Amino acid sequence: MKVWELETDANNYDYFTIPDDEEEEKLLFDYCFDGNPIADRWKPITVEVIEESKRSDTPTFKPGAPVLSENAIMKLQDLIKGVVEVLPLNYSKEQYYAINVLDVVDCIDYDKAKCKMFGDGKRVMRFIEYSFKPEIIQNKHIFKIPELCKSCVLVSDEFRNRVLKSGLDGFAFHELWDSEGE
What we know:
single chain; alpha+beta
């Protein structure tokens, strides 16, 4: 079993920005994408491409808030259903959605993980080496961890393999953990 960080290929594909300062503030302060539901108060945010590049099924946007095309939603539906909110964005060329991951899973095995703590000794600054509790993340295909819930989206091998086999563009994955390596 492996756990991957979901990333985007920002060097080769589109990068979304928010042209309106008020909407950007709303995204930063009202819509935290920290695992709490926001669909009931979501107002679609207008986005545009910073610099024309190759079209992507997951343009780079905000850390912790992946963006997916309609095509990606369709191909990943069974893996994300019930654990994310699919929030429409306003984009002039096609329909994209911000993904609010709701499944925040307390699954770090601190006996094996290595991390750098903040000065208070209570909060994780960053992980040097991840270790997960396999029994807790079994059948979790897209999730967050409490320690990094605003910035990091994690996915399973099955999610990654589906993306690769489906020919979806713009995705990048960083391997965080392999249960075989422990």
